[in-house]
Amino acid sequence: MSSRGITDSIREKLNIVDVVKDYIPDLRQAGRNHKACCPFHNEKTPSFTVSPDKQIFYCFGCNEGGDMFTFVMKMEGLTFVETLKKLSLKAGLEWQEAEYHQLSEKEKERLAIKKVLAAAEEFYKKLLFSSNGEKARLYLGARKISKATVERFAMGFAPPGEPALLQELERKGFSTELAVKAGLAALRDSGQVTDYFRNRVMFPIKNAAGEITAFGGRALDDSQQPKYLNSPETPLFAKRRTLYGIYEALPQIRKTGRLLILEGYMDVISAHQHGITFAVAGLGTALSTDHAAFIKRYSKDTILMFDADEAGINASIRASDIFMEAGMYVKVADLGEELDPDEYLNEHGVEAFEKKLLAAADPLEFRISALLKKRPGPMSSQDKARLIELLLDTVARQTDEILKSEWIKTLSARFDVTQESVLRQLNKKSGAARNESRAAGSEPPAASALPDVPAIELGFIHLILKDPGLTACVGELTEEDFQSPFSKKIFSAVKDMAGGEPAKAIPGLLELFPESAGLIMKLSVEEISDMNPEQNAAKAAAMIRKLSLERKWKSLKSRLSALEPAEIEEFRRLTGVLKSAAKSEPNL
Question: d(Cα 93, Cα 41) in Å, to the nearest integer?
């Protein structure tokens, strides 16, 4: 079956609403459409819209849009052919591999990288249980990691010495260039290519779909630096968008809406081994807005638990700020002693660990406790003022106004000052931040301008995109009556499609006019409070037709003395038509 045939079959079997709900469980019906907070950017008010009538999605906040295939490709980073395979299985259709030549060069490269990463995973796993992997096995045993957990997380071993992985990949037909692109090999200054990971316990890093996108490696010798090494950025891997353990944790996160963010590989692995199967970790970098946007799709109850040292405390504060600004509820858990989560679990057990999670504090309480630990004695008035000023940074980032009000009360009570003074200081701080933002030119960018389309034409196009059947109400209106090139092409194409299925009209237009995809999707999902669309479409068509005739009449009149006989006849005809239209105008 061709890709065209399989896409049509998938569209017949699947509804985009059901596909999107697999990724955004909070998608809710709103009129004829469905809405949720956008998975592609951070927002507080839902502007992400899914139209079951048009079988497309569109975000009015970031202008991302497309059909179900585009949505899955964007969410999972898949090629078009991989998306077809995934959705065909969901639709219960028999899958036959699409021909390789249908892929773009970029898609071919991504597929090749996935294949070489999978081959590397097999190589590392095999070596872990070989005689060469004894030191790695002893390390994992000392960390109390069971064989079942090793297998579940597909851990492996990268040997020291010669570029063993490169030699293995070459035997399997993979090029050195591909190994470098995949982050498995590195080019030295001497020009020699060598294995990127050596003498390390290996941790495959997977995306939400379970595909390997990168690796992490833990050094087995104390002298080896860095202790933890991640793959470099590749076409498949970006640290700012990746969470270790997300594939293993996602079933439990989806089930409970609960997510725990830890610091490292071993913390996550130990947590899962102890039954805390909703744990994930960042990859050695600060949590980002991309992480927040991803987590927000799945988690309603996010808990941060980092190391108890100063670096861990600061990382917790930065991460909670990012999550609050994304409109998320977040808490911070503190183990209360100098132990990593995996050490704490092994020493105290899962029940004690769960109690620590239940006792997690909101970001303001956590920051108050952290600051007061450094100031055990009495505070002067100036000390109080400085601390409150710092804590108002956290309050200002809270987007929930009820919580913000409660936090003002908390600061007032904890530092024995009036709520009014705290609120005034907060308002000063917020005003200063806005002024700095304007001065730095960092105001939010304006929405991208619409093409130069007359309002009457844009309104008419809006109506027929919502219901292509309305082209039956247009009378003598033709493509040439429109001023805007956008209006001309959309009217002509919609009129040709009017007899077909409405759900296929918009995807068809998107294929015909990819340069206008954003506006087509925006208009087709934007709600219209229109009680009589047939009458309004007829009125708009009549007005567009009248304006077109007036333009022709004025053009002829401007060169009246030089008109040919046929043009003079046309001028007279138009004069009569416009006079008749003027008499009947109140009935339009």
Answer: 33
Domain of residue 202 covers 104-237
Q: Are strands 48-51 and 56-59 parallel, antiparallel or unpaired?
A: antiparallel
3-class DSSP state of 203: strand
Instruction: For residue 121, tell me if it sits in a domain.
Output: yes
Counted domains in the chain = 5
In this structure, what are the phi and psi dihedrals at residue 206, rounded to the nearest 5 degrees? -115, 155
211 Cβ contact list (under 8 Å, min separation 6): 114
- Asked if 216 and 244 sit in the same domain, the reply is no
Which residue's entry shows tokens 């190589």? 123
Sequence-ordered list of residues with C-beta below 8 angstroms from that of 534, at least 6 positions apart, any chain = 470, 473
User: How much is the pTM?
Assistant: 0.71
Distance CA 549, CA 66 (A): 37
When pLDDT is cut at 50, 70 and 90, the band that residue 587 belongs to is: very low
CATH number of the domain that 135 lies in? 3.90.980.10
Q: What's the DSSP call for residue 279?
A: E
439: helix, coil or strand?
helix
Helix ranges, 363-501 (H) = 363-373, 381-397, 401-415, 419-439, 455-466, 485-497
Percent of the chain with pLDDT over 70: 91
Q: Which tens digits make up the pLDDT trace of 557-569?
A: 888 777 788 888 8
User: Of 80, 100, 120, at which residue does a domain stop?
Assistant: 100
Give the CATH number for residue 305. Answer: 3.40.1360.10
Same domain, yes or no: 96 and 145 = no
Residue 354 domain-assigned (yes or no)? no
Domain-ending residue, one of 348, 375, 402: 348
Contacts 24+ apart (CB under 8 A), 271-276: 271/341, 271/342, 271/345, 271/353, 272/149, 272/152, 272/153, 272/245, 272/248, 273/145, 273/146, 273/149, 274/345, 274/349, 274/350, 274/353, 275/350, 276/345, 276/350, 276/353, 276/354
Q: What is the DSSP string of 528-555?
A: ---S-HHHHHHHHHHHHHHHHHHHHHHH
pLDDT in tens, 363-416: 999 999 988 887 777 888 998 999 999 999 999 998 888 999 999 999 999 999
What is the Cα–Cα distance from 490 to 516, expressed in whole angstroms?
10
The answer to whether residues 487 and 513 belong to one domain is: yes
Residues 211 and 262 in one domain: no
pLDDT score recorded for residue 443 = 45
Asked, for residue 444, whether it belongs to a domain, the answer is: no
Q: What is the pLDDT of residues 521-534, one digit of tens each?
A: 888 888 776 668 88
Helix (H) or strand (E) holding 185: strand 185-187
Residues in contact with 375: Cβ distance below 8 Å, sequence separation at least 6, in sequence order:
383, 387
Residue 203 lies in a domain: yes
